[in-house]
Amino acid sequence: MRLDRARVVDRLVLDQAHQQRVPVQAVEQRVLDQVLDKLLDLVFVREEPEFE
Question: Which domain of life is it from (predicted)?
Answer without folding.
Answer: Bacteria
